[in-house]
Design goal:
nicotinate phosphoribosyltransferase; TIM Barrel; 7-stranded antiparallel beta sheet; 15 helices
């Protein structure tokens, strides 16, 4: 069995679909859109990663033999002649054309973002066959990137209200999600998608993906940080020594170190260790200690931790009238952090005149895992078929589910004079107007995009 048998990267029922199209079928055109959901717009991202990982490597006879054996045993027909045609006439590369908006483009819901059509009349069945792999390949990184960007907008708004600048924004949401993702590939794609918006991450596989698929030498950064096992290994009676060792190893001019401080009693750690035994070392290190609370109600814990640290170490008042800890100490909240709790925490801080400059967020499973395709209702639908040389509209319009009505015809995405976007019939626009540009054709990546370009387009 090969690691990536593209023929088997499919839903079972797709194997029978080549027998279900009308006679004379030559081409099927399908599109992807977000049909609704919690966010009003989506960051288009992840297509190049999918193309590079799956579509640039040809299938071979072993793939066909394996797929035939498995699908027949599974109870389905298998289009051996079709796949052998792809192998012999197209060197094993898929005769498809995929057109899409440039990655990083922020597209309002209900608009076409991607369109795919077969380039060989014998492979009219291939367009829909690729749906399973293609939809999954983009709904997940797009949803992570979109949620991350929406959180970025919230944090930016609170920075504008409570801080002197947005300079710290790129590091305000740190990815803690690697261990909570469902697979290594999920962590890679989701971790990379978060980095479209922020530069803080502990998901190393996301850095690997950004380098491998989008040419980013180093897309994100982190700092030395403690976990409970390294702190509790010293025992409760030696907690202060454990913290002192963190300063010995990692503190110093212009250095940052994060220390989880709730192993036993967070308030004791703040008051008696950081604010007592080690106060002078923290104050004079020349770097920054980041205290990490990791349990309790996040709204109450964050605001109370900041109050105590300000009472111990002092605070200045910025030009907006909000209090800021000295540069040598900050807080990171990594427990109970979601797109819903972040604005609650920031609002509570604002009400207590605490600047957002004091806090960074770490987000785990809620960033990379607590998401699904329905959050923005991703769907790929056939919208046109060419039969005997003539294109015909294809659509669904269920009486029992009007929200599932699909678009018809071959489509284009254009910018309106007002600055918004509109999905229109392909025949109504010239190719220069159409924002959907060919990205993949017949086994070749046509337009390579760098991670920096994605970031620029997605910037808030």
């Amino acid at each position: 069995m090969t690691a990536h048998n593209l023929i088997l990267n499919v839903d079972s029922y797709k194997a029978s679909h080549y027998l279900q199209y009308p006679p004379g079928a030559e081409a099927v055109s399908s599109y992807i859109e977000c049909r609704g959901g919690e966010f009003a717009e989506a960051v288009f991202f992840g297509l190049q990663a999918f193309i590079r990982e799956y579509l640039l490597t040809p299938i071979h006879m072993g793939d066909i033999d394996e797929a035939e054996e498995m699908l027949h045993a599974h109870g389905l027909p298998f289009h051996r002649a079709g796949w052998e045609h792809i192998l012999q006439a197209h060197d094993g590369l898929l005769p498809l054309e995929i057109s899409a908006v440039p990655e990083g483009t922020v597209v309002p819901l209900h608009n076409v973002m991607l369109q795919v059509v077969n380039t060989c009349p014998s492979c009219f069945w291939l367009t829909s066959y690729i749906e399973t792999a293609l939809v999954r390949a983009i709904w997940y990184p797009m949803t992570v990137a979109t949620q991350s960007r929406e959180i970025k907008k919230v944090i930016a708004r609170y920075l504008d209200e409570t801080a002197d600048s947005r300079d710290s924004l790129p590091f305000k949401l740190h990815d803690f999600g690697a261990r909570g993702a469902s697979s290594l590939e999920s962590a890679m794609l989701g971790g990379m998608a978060h980095l479209v918006n922020f530069q803080g991450t502990d998901t190393v596989s996301g850095l690997v993906a950004a380098r491998r698929y989008y040419g980013a030498d180093m897309a994100g950064y982190s700092i030395p940080a403690a976990e409970h096992s390294t702190m509790t290994a010293w025992g409760r009676e030696r907690e202060a020594e454990a913290y002192a060792n963190m300063l010995d190893q990692f503190a110093g001019p212009d250095k940052l170190v994060a220390v989880v401080s709730d192993s036993y009693d967070l308030w004791y750690a703040i008051e008696q260790i950081w604010g007592g035994t080690l106060k002078e070392r923290v104050t004079n290190s020349g770097g920054t200690l980041v205290v990490r609370p990791d349990s309790g109600d996040p709204v109450a814990i964050v605001t109370e931790s900041l109050e105590r640290l300000m009472r111990i170490f002092g605070a200045t008042t910025n030009s907006k009238g909000y209090r800021v800890l000295p540069d040598f100490i900050r807080v990171i909240q990594g427990d109970g952090v979601t797109r819903h709790s972040i604005p609650q925490i920031l609002q509570a801080m604002k009400e207590q005149k605490q600047s957002v400059d004091n806090i960074t967020f770490g987000m785990g499973g809620a960033l990379l895992q607590k998401l699904d395709r329905d959050l923005m209702s991703f769907a790929m639908k056939a919208s046109a078929i060419r039969i005997d040389g003539h294109w015909h509209d294809v659509y669904k319009d269920p009486v029992t589910g009007p929200e599932k009505k699909s678009k018809r015809g071959r489509l284009a995405l254009i910018r309106q004079p007002s600055g918004g976007y509109a999905t229109v019939p392909l025949e109504q626009v010239n190719p220069q107007q159409n924002l959907l540009q060919p990205v993949y054709r017949d086994g070749r990546l046509l337009a390579e995009i760098h991670f920096d370009e994605v970031r620029r387009r997605a910037d808030i």
